[in-house]
Amino acid sequence: MKVVELSGDATAVVEQDGIRRHVNIRLLPDCRIGDYLLIHAGYAIEIIDPEAAAANLQSLEEMKETLGL
User: Fold this and answer.
1) Whole-model pTM above 0.90?
2) How large is the greatest C-alpha to C-alpha distance in the chain, in angstroms?
3) Phi first, then psi: what are they for 5, rounded to 5°?
4) Which CATH code for domain 2-67?
5) What pLDDT does residue 19 have?
């Protein structure tokens, strides 16, 4: 998910496919707007390389198409 907003309280707003969520970024204090994050149980646990994120998002889109979603 891509970071679209940062708050001063160790949270960020992330977005994917138009869906926004609030996540805790306490484990990743260096994340910035525009970063792609791996999220687990509401916590950001890893900053993802933009090229890897693009490849993963492309794979997800292909799976959606295959499943007719």
Assistant:
1) no
2) 41
3) -150, 150
4) 2.30.30.140
5) 95
